[in-house]
Design goal:
Elements: H1 2-21, E1 25-27, H2 29-51, H3 62-78, E2 83-85, H4 87-103
Antiparallel strand pairs: 1-2
Helix pairs in contact: 1-2, 1-4, 2-3, 3-4
Length: 109
């Protein structure tokens, strides 16, 4: 339970940092980042269940990159007051989050 809480806190911080770095993406404060991180995690989990582990946002490679961008883009429609992102912003955010995840993993291992 503690690890899951830490995971969401780290994910929220990563979303905040990415929103400052990436044009076309904005997050409504830390609370909005927490909500967006939760929604992104749920959508990612659903993508993994529907398409398998190889198609999940955590999958390495181009497919995982695209799925992560779609997940980030879809999150804005579920929680419109927490996150706003353009298509280019979602692609750039997916790239930056993938790079950050290589050094600071946000998934439970």
């Amino acid at each position: 339970m503690i690890r899951a809480i830490i995971r969401f806190l780290v994910s929220a911080v990563v979303l905040l940092v990415v929103s400052w770095l990436v044009p076309g993406m904005s997050v409504a404060g830390f609370g909005g980042a927490l909500i967006a991180a939760l929604v992104i995690a749920v959508i990612g989990w659903l993508a993994e269940k529907l398409f398998g582990k190889d198609m999940s946002p955590q999958a390495r490679g181009f497919t995982g990159f695209l799925i992560a961008a779609v997940v980030i883009y879809l999150a804005q429609f579920i929680v419109p007051n927490s996150i706003e992102v353009s298509i280019i912003g979602a692609l750039l955010a997916s790239l930056v989050i993938g790079l950050v995840d290589a050094f600071v993993p946000t998934t439970l291992r």
